[in-house]
Amino acid sequence: IVIGCIAAYYYYFFKASVMAFFSGMAGQLLGVFGVALIVGFFYFPILDVKYNDNTMLQIVFETIKHNCVGVGTALMILASLPQTAFSRVLKLVLGNRVWYPLGQLAYSNYIFHLMVIAVVVPTGVKIATKNPGVLPDSLLLTSFVLAAISYGITLFISVLSYLFLERPIMNLRR
Q1: What is the 3-state secondary structure (H, E, C) of 114-134?
Q2: What is the rounded CA–CA span in Å between residue 112 and residue 150?
Q3: pLDDT at position 14 over 90
Q4: How many CA atoms within 13 Å lie on the side-chain side of 22?
Q5: CB–CB of 75/6 below 8 Å?
Q6: Looking at 13-27, 50-64, 65-79, 158-172, which range is the least confident one?
Q7: For residue 6, which of 73, 64, 66 has the smallest C-alpha distance?
Q8: SS (H, E, C) the chain
Q9: Mean pLDDT over residues 143-149, rounded?
Q10: Average pLDDT, stretch 89-114?
Q11: Which residues, 6 or more positions from 16, have their beta carbon under 8 angstroms from its beta carbon?
C-alpha cells in the first residue's frame, strides 16, 4: 500500500515529470521490468527446484516478495499512463473482454482457491509418489498440471457460487 501511495503522490504532485519520464524509453523499460517483477515473483518458487531446500532463500523471498510485486505494479501502472506502445499492448491484453467473466468470479476465486489447492496439491503429490509416471517427472510440469487442475476446480466452484449465492444476494438489493 505504501508503494502505491508513493507512486500516486509523485503522479499527483509531479505529473508532468512522471509523464515525461515514462513516455521515454527508460520509463517504458521500467514498465516492462515491472511486469517481469510481478510475473517473476509469482513463479519463482515453482521454477527454482532448490527453493524448498533452502530455508534462507525462503526467508529472503517471503520478506521481499510483496514489496517487489508492489514496486512492479506501481511501475506497470505509471508506465501505462502515457499513450505509448507499452500502454497499448497492456490495454490490449488486460482490457480484453475475455477477462470480464473472470473478473465477475474474482471474489469467489479468492474465497475458494486456497481450500481447493489445500486438497488438490497433497492429493496430487500422493498420487505421484504412489504411481510414478501419472504426473510429469519434471517438478515444473507437475506444478503446472496441479495448478491447472486446481484452477479448473476453483473456477467450477466459483461459477456455482456466483450463480447460486452471489447473484441472488446482489439481486436482493434491487
Answers
A1: HHHHHHHHHHHHHHHHHCCCC
A2: 10
A3: yes
A4: 27
A5: no
A6: 50-64
A7: 73
A8: CHHHHHHHHHHHHCHHHHHHHHHCHHHHHHHHHHHHHHHHHHHHHHHCHHHHHCHHHHHHHHHHHHHHHHHHHHHHHHHHCCCCHHHHHHHHHHCCCCHHHHHHCHHHHHHHHHHHHHHHHHHHHHHHHHCCCCCCCCHHHHHHHHHHHHHHHHHHHHHHHHHHHHHHHHHHCC
A9: 86
A10: 90
A11: none
Q: With 80 as the cut, is the pLDDT of residue 44 above it?
A: no
> Which residue in this structure is represented by grid cell 452471489?
166
Q: What mean pLDDT do residues 73-88 have? A: 92
Contact (Cβ atoms closer than 8 angstroms) between residue 75 and residue 30: yes
Q: Map grid coordinates 511486469 to a residue.
A: 35
**All cell numbers assigned to 13:** 504532485
* b/e per residue 29-58 (b: at least 16 CB within 10 A): ebbebbbebbeebeeeebeeeeeeeeeeee
Res 115 pLDDT > 90: yes
The Cα 67–Cα 156 span in angstroms is 32
Q: Are 112 and 156 in contact (CB under 8 A)?
A: no
